[in-house]
Design brief:
762 residues, mainly beta
Amino acid sequence: MRTIVLALFVSVLFVSASSSLLHADEPTSNEETPAVAPGAADALTRSREGVETMTIFGSNGDLSRIGGSAYVVDEQKLEDLEYDDINRVLRQVPGVYIREEDGFGLRPNIGIRGATSDRSAKVTLMEDRILFGPAPYSAPAAYYFPLVTRMVGVEVFKGPSSVQFGPHTVGGAINLVTRPIPDEPTIFGDVAYGQRNYYKLHSYGGGRWNGFGLLLEGVRVETDGFKDLDGGGDTGFAKDEFMLKGDYLWPTISEVDLTTEVKLGFADETSRESYLGISDDDFGTTPYRRYAASRLDRMEWDRWQFQLSQLVGITDDLSVRATAYRNQMERAWKKLNRFDGDAPPLHDIFANPTGVNAVYLSILRGDSDSNPDVTDEALLIGINDREFVSQGLDFVGNWDIDTGPFEHVLEAGVRVHYDEIVRDHTEDSYLMLNANPEPTGDPRRQIADNTGDALAVAVYLHDEIIWDRLTISPGLRFESISTDFEDRLPELDDLPAERDSDTQNIVIPGISGVYSIIDTGDDEVGLLAGVHRGFSPVSPGQSSAADPEDSINYEAGARYLGSLFNTSAIGFFNDYDNLLATCRSGAGCDPEDIDKQFNGGDVDIYGLELTADTAPEVGWEVSVPMALAYTFTQTEFRSSFNSAGAIFGDVEKGDEMPYVPEHLVNFSIGLTRGPFGFTTILNYVGEQRDVAGQGSIPANEKIDDYFFADLVAHWDFSDRGRIYLGIDNLADNAYIVSRRPYGARPGMPFQVMGGIKYQLGG
């Protein structure tokens, strides 16, 4: 399938390129499009910017309208950094917490302002403002994440600014912006190669002709991986993504501007990733080792995407966009789950690798063979087959209106969404023999066979009320979520399937304000504050004791935007009435508890986010761009409880949350002169807990603070071509990023790659 899709992509791109070159001198579609009503094109353009790309920052003048915390990594920044890993991109954003897993960002764990980072399930994830998670309501774990390589913007919304983007408002929202169709015929190519047989192929081509627009884009990223599998073998991945965009600007009808857009996508991945880490002793000597027990671990998935949008520019002040979408994904992850019988959980073996646990650890390494007469020494390797569907209709309207001295920027939205997950989880028994897992021939075990689905109707209204230097932004969101769950596992025992249904209705208000106390045109100082309700729904099939995640979130701070530098300081306080946690494989839960949710009680999370950036010129046409993002965070459970979740466990009042470091620092400094430039990015992550606790952190529950530096350099050898060099982990520091789910997990080691990109037309 991958070969066929790649061949089709190359063929269509060649045709597009030929057409672009043959017709480069012909008039553009703007010159041949019929005249439109005054202001209609402006409304359509604003609709595209406000609904599809949704860029928040862009000029100092935006300060008076931003009454919440938002951050944009724009196209130029993404081009300069040359990151494939979304985790490294998001480290530039204050208030965002990353729990790395594989070193490449294949399945990121993202949290915002202390919200649980496990598989990014508490963050609303969007591509061009449409939910892209496999099943955002019924199974919100983000086992798919688009390649940031093909994005032209990454937008992060926190605080009251996230109320528009449910279902999860407790942490925030991330919107990935795909490439717009170029106005001029354009062809682009990017080829890179690096250590460990890393390579990247990225190309796109498109343009506009006679009212039609077309863009075809494809990316392939592949590497052998940086971990050393005992006995040899590949530990890398190969990932492909293709996107086709088309639109048509209809002739003007009754002074209304109509544009129809379609977006098609296909993606697939084969990765030899594992949940199995290594012991602390082994990390100290061979940090990138992978044990023999993980030899068979493998993830495979493919995903199809469809979107059809109708944009209507009614006047220069009123526009509407309607989008029908469907995403379909199938995945199979073969991975080590546990030992059989009464053996201790894998996470406990790594936390205390002495006594009898040393025997199990030796089997995982392949140093010892399994005893076929001892059930506990058999390895259970599971295949988690899952099928996902996510589809719906999304309507967004924008209306600018004045009422007396007040200017209103109104946005209203309605979304009808359905998603579904079908789980088929099995386990097979293996013995470790001669450092290889060998099947025992025992019958396959069925450990999960169920379907969960959700039908959600969401309505929201948001208004920016502008009066002189004051902007007040109230917002209100309503969600009605109906879930159904069918568990077919009891049918194995000739019992009827278990079914469960539930309905959740929630009102999510929010309000923010910003006041410009100084506005000279070149320099502007604004004070901001806001409050909103945080919410995350309960997934299908949960115990009646599981309550939705609920919090009241506050923020206040100040911004300065000037001609020489920009800076901001924003404090936040999230008062959780109930923290909802989910048991996942990535957190080390037993297979029988996977996807079960439980209440985490009252939690306080508070902190401070600081940003600053400047780019002074120091003479000789040399500029020195610098940027800082710093986050300080404190967390505290306000109640005691016992949970089945491996990452929380037995919690006492006063405990701190795991995987929320007290300090996060990202600082970049560069130098540019003419076509040459380089940037060094310094990252510091404070120590973290592996499980909830207080006081000094036990060694087997501690992730030490760590530091790493990246470097990227470029030479623009023409106004259309660039040669670039990227180095990750410049000092080659070996550091632990997580102890989840089983054992110490390393960050990316020293990695160097170089590439060349070139554009024709545009």
